[in-house]
Amino acid sequence: MKKPFNKLYTLAGERLKNDPSIIPWDVYPRPHLRRKEWLNLNGFWGFETEAGYKGSIRVPFPAESLLSGFGGEIKYGEKLTYRRSFTVPNEWRGKRILLNVGAVSRECRIYVNGSMEGWGYSAYIPRFACDVTDCLREGENELRIECVNDLDPVYPYGKQRIDRGGMWYTPCSGIWQTVWLEPVPEEHIRELVVKQEGMEQVVYVTGPKEGVVYCEGRRFGFKKGVCRMSFSKPRLWSPEEPNLYEFTVKAGEDEAEGYFAFRTIETKTVDGAPRLCLNGKPYFFNGLLDQGYFSDGLWTPAEPEEYERDIMKMKSLGFNMLRKHIKIEPELFYYYCDKLGMAVFQDMVNNGKYRFLRDTLLPTIGVTKLSDKRLNKDAAARGNFAREMLSTARLLGSHPSIVYWTIFNEGWGQFCADEMYERLKKLDPTRPIDSASGWFHQKKTDVDSLHIYFKKLRLGKRRELPQVISEFGGYVWKDEAHSFNPNKTYGYKIFKTREEFVSGFKKLYLEELLPLVKQGLSAAVYTQVSDVEDETNGLMTYDRRVMKLSAEEAARISEALKKACE
Question: I need a labelling partner for 462 at 20 to 30 A (CA). Which of 21, 109, 382, 520 fits?
Answer without folding.
Answer: 382
